[in-house]
Amino acid sequence: MLLGFASAAVGTHTVFTLSKYVDINTFWRLLLGGQTRVGTALSLAVSAVGFAWLSASWWRWRRRGGSTDLLWSATLVWTLVGGAYTAIYDTILIVPAVILMAGAVRDNRQFESLVALVGAIYAAAFVTQPVAGAIGFQVFTPLLTVMGTFALRSYGSHPPPAGHLDDHTPDQRPGGRKAAHPG
Fold it and tell me: Which of 3-17, 35-49, 73-87, 160-174 has the weakest average pLDDT?
């Protein structure tokens, strides 16, 4: 049964209504009229870039510390985009992602951009399946990709936490040496 499901999810035939799925693989299947080598390559490329950027951001957090709200937001959203298949009902995961982002974004311009993006996603929820079924364009997938990218870019623009010095806190220098404190 599992092999049959895997074949249906990524193969050339389908038992699923593709307009009800928002992952990157299904996006290209709908847009290109079926499973193609180009679509598979594009799906892998988008997923690989998202995974690499997300991994690098988590690695950077490990060195510098600070809040993980934007990273968890990006992780939730990129999981929806890069998953093997993501049904429309799974997009409920953007709710905690938005809550985390709204609490983490400090810049007014970024916050206004987030509000506009959330508004676009909310509006798209009403038309995404009919549009995908009618013209083969899944509106949610690019919006989710933008949302994941927004979270990672916002994380990258946040300054390091207080006490941060060369990717180590003053008392956590390589080799276990304490930082010299004046006085």
Answer: 160-174
C-alpha 29/C-alpha 38 separation (Å) is 10
Q: Region 69-73: what's the mean pLDDT? A: 96
94-131: burial string, b at 16+ Cβ within 10 Å, e else: beebbebbeebbeeeebeebbeebbeebeebeeebbeb
Q: What is the pLDDT of residue 179?
A: 47
**Element holding 129 (H helix, E strand):** helix 128-135
Residue 178 host element (H or E): none
Give the closest residue to 30 by CA, choosing from 122, 140, 125, 120.
140
**85 located within any domain:** yes
Task: State the residue for tokens 């594009």.
Answer: 42
> Taking the model in full, what pTM does it have?
0.78
Among the listed ranges 44-48, 127-131, 179-183, which one has the minimum average pLDDT value? Answer: 179-183
Structural domains of the chain, count? 1
Residue 170 lies in a domain: no
Alpha carbons 68 and 137: distance in angstroms, whole number: 33
Within a domain: residue 42?
yes
Tell me how far apart the alpha carbons of residues 95 and 137 are, in angstroms, rounded to a whole number: 23
Host domain of residue 118: 17-160
Residues 55, 82: Cα–Cα separation, whole Å: 13
